[in-house]
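Design request, tokens follow.
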């Protein structure tokens, strides 16, 4: 008796389409051109525009929103290394953001008024406290966060999936609470509690003191830090460590059988991601001119994760798109839209209060119809659709 044969349909995807992915050089050029164009526009052009046009940009895309969005991009790129590259679900990334912010509060203010240390700072020499250069604090905050990433990750990364998510969730809740209640820890004031630490020192750039409202120059700093994280992400992604992360993400057991050091690779992912969170925390503290415990809520971790999922896990450029989109909607887009609708219809609807309803709906839609994100990584897209393609091919015989 002749055995029945199963015929597989040829898919429309070419091998070139699956393996090529994104042309990194085009995206790098586009990122650079867009960054320079935005800086020129806000520094030299927007004030020369007619009032109606300038007011439109001030309402829908103010310079403060652009700068804050870049801080979100920096942190989202760090989370993408943990979640998108290594496949480790992290629900407590806000903790690294908070630690980085408090590093700026400790080393760029008069908080520790018992001492008087000035190294490269723009603060007056007679002002008490620890006053280090912004660039030094960036490095210090990033290293401290990386160390915390290793310390927290070492005992917990043996866990998998939901258990790891719960542990990181607890870590993300504990650290902000320590800062919120840290005004008196055994007689030591760690964080000034709910009052926070404000102001922080001005940033120095080319010998110029940048105050809280020097938004154009701060934009250059923030976009440079975002570019640094893009560079780190792309370089590591193409190296041996990046390939180890991808192997762990796709099949941890197979990766270990092939000689990938699981613990070292996972700790490296946590350390690099936390390094990015520290940079973002220091930048955010200088953006808001202080550090306040009530700003580091669990919601930040969820929003960052939504940015990574929406943009495309594992794809640097997709994460940037997701971070810019969600941060703009959350800070400016939704309030401006609500103001426009309320003024047109004479209503009084609080649109910003529905932001999580909007984000939740978007995530549900993405999980149902486009799990790989807006700009997916080609390799992850192939894996996610492999089962669907196999089922459709067998069913089409």
């Amino acid at each position: 008796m002749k055995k029945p044969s199963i015929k597989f349909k040829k898919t429309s995807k070419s091998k070139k389409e699956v393996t090529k992915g994104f042309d990194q050089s085009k995206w790098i050029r586009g990122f650079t051109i867009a960054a320079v164009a935005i800086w020129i526009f806000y520094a030299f052009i927007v004030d020369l525009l007619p009032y109606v046009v300038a007011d439109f940009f001030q309402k829908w895309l103010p310079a403060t929103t652009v700068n804050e969005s870049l801080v979100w991009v920096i942190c989202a790129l760090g989370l993408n290394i943990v979640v998108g590259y290594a496949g480790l679900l992290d629900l407590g990334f806000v903790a690294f953001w908070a630690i980085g912010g408090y590093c700026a509060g400790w080393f760029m203010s008069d908080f520790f008024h018992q001492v008087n240390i000035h190294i490269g700072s723009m603060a007056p020499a007679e002002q008490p406290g620890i006053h280090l250069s912004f660039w030094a604090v960036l490095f210090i905050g990033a290293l401290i966060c990386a160390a915390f990433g290793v310390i927290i990750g070492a005992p917990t990364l043996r866990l998998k999936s939901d258990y790891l998510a719960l542990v990181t969730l607890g870590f993300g809740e504990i650290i902000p609470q320590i800062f919120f209640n840290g005004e008196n820890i055994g007689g030591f004031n760690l964080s000034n509690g709910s009052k926070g630490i404000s102001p922080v020192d001005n940033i120095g750039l080319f010998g110029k003191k940048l105050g809280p409202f020097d938004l154009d120059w701060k934009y250059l700093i923030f976009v440079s830090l975002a570019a640094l994280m893009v560079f780190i992400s792309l370089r590591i992604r193409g190296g041996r460590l990046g390939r180890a992360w991808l192997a762990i993400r796709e099949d941890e057991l197979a990766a270990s059988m092939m000689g990938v050091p699981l613990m070292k690779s996972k700790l490296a992912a946590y350390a690099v991601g936390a390094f990015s969170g520290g940079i973002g925390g220091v930048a955010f503290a200088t953006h808001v001119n202080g550090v306040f415990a009530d700003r580091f809520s669990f919601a930040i971790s969820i929003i960052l994760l939504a940015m990574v999922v929406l943009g495309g896990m594992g794809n640097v450029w997709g994460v940037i798109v997701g971070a810019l989109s969600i941060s703009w909607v959350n800070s400016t887009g939704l309030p401006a839209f609500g103001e426009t609708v309320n003024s047109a219809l004479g209503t009084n609807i609080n649109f910003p209060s529905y932001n999580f309803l909007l984000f939740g709906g978007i995530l549900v839609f993405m999980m149902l119809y486009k799990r790989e994100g807006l700009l997916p990584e080609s390799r992850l897209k192939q894996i996610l659709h492999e089962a669907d393609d196999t089922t459709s091919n067998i069913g089409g015989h």
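Comment from the thread starter after seeing the answer: thanks! The radius of gyration is 23 Å.
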